[in-house]
Amino acid sequence: IDVIMPIKSDFPRTACRRETEIVRCDLWHMREDGIRPIVVSEGLSDRQRPVNGEIMNTPAAHEGPVTPTPFTVIRGGTHLEGECWGDSRHPAVLLIAGTSCTRDWWPSELCERLTRIGVRAIRYDQRDTGASSTWPAGAPAYALTDLADDALAILDAAGAERAHIVGFSQGGWVAQILGLDHPRRVESLTLVSTRPTEHGPADPDLPDLDPKLLAAWSEMPEPDWNDSRDVIDSYVEGERVLAGDSFDENSVRAMCTAAVARSRSPQSAGNHPLMQPRERWRERLGTLLAPTTVIHGTADPLFPAGNARALAASIPNVSLRLVDGVGHELPSRVWDTLVDSIRGRLRPGSNDAPVP
């Protein structure tokens, strides 16, 4: 960091705590593209997390245009880039994207809609995507548990002791791990287009991917990673084969264009399926404490809807919502279901106050 400076802001302020393994600072980094908040988060554990934040009255839902607050988390040398949408005193909703997806897969319009129900939306680039740290293509040195620890660091950066966790596809696996291993941090779970096992063959009782999808993938050429237009076209085609009975190419192309423009190494995003395997968690789902909603498209070719039914059957306090004709995607016609799910989990007067 070349220049660090304090600055007045609505971004949650936290004091440096150098007497423990946690170092959480309200620091700002002067970069070429402006001043950005820097939060350093090392060696975090549930035992060490501050829990004595002052409880504040929850303000009204946001009205009018929303300007997100960007922030950077540095955890163990890994840089994670994120954004907070909405009032920092509102309950937090953490949005975790799928395999190889940047935060752009949670559209700005959806984040704004979430602020309208009185929550703050937090989206971020997972490692190996977007503006966050990358590893050499084909050689990721991390596992799914590291992605879960990254998510906790994002919550700490946002000053959220607890959050409503929303995970899409691979992000749904991260959400399940958070619910199982860090229940004190999870207010509710919303699991979208996901299953109860990670990358690799499906369990024998779960439906595997549609053979037509596998054939489509085999016919897709690898893009020229030095040609952004070719990469964008490849991303769009990848989304097309995952879609259900309709495909909004204009919206998808705009999303992919934004993602490629911000990405350090688009090729490295392909590292996610190559992560080190972690211990199974499916057999533990019966111990989940958080109220959970499972949302899934009936036309999902990657994780057919039987995965959602099996996932829901394993979780005690769960609601299953199937959306007709939707594939492995998050089109605007799913947003009402998603927003309603989170609205239904809000507790009157609840909030995640910034940690002083």
Give an account of the 3D structure.
Strand 7 (163-168), helix 3 and strand 8 form a beta-alpha-beta unit. Helix 2 crosses helix 3 (170-181) and helix 5 (228-240) crosses helix 6 (249-262). The chain contains 8 helices and 10 strands. Strands 1-2-3-4-6-5-7-8-9-10 form a 10-stranded mixed beta sheet, sandwiched between helices. 26% of the residues lie in helices and 17% in strands. The longest helix is centred in the middle third of the chain and has 14 residues, at 144-157. By secondary structure, the protein is α/β, with parallel strands linked by helices. The protein is globular. It has helices spanning 108-115, 144-157, 170-181, 211-219, 228-240, 249-262, 306-314, 332-345; strands at residues 27-31, 34-40, 69-75, 78-85, 92-96, 120-124, 163-168, 186-192, 292-297, 318-323.
What form results from the Cα inertia axes?
globular
The fraction of residues assigned to DSSP E strands is 15-25%
Largest sheet: 10 strands, mixed
What is the tally of helical segments? 8
Stretches where pLDDT is under 50 for at least 5 consecutive residues are: 1-58, 352-356
**Integer-rounded radius of gyration:** 19 Å
N/C terminus separation: 24 Å
**SSE succession:** EEEEEHEHEHEHHHEHEH
| Residues in helices, as a percent range | 25-40%
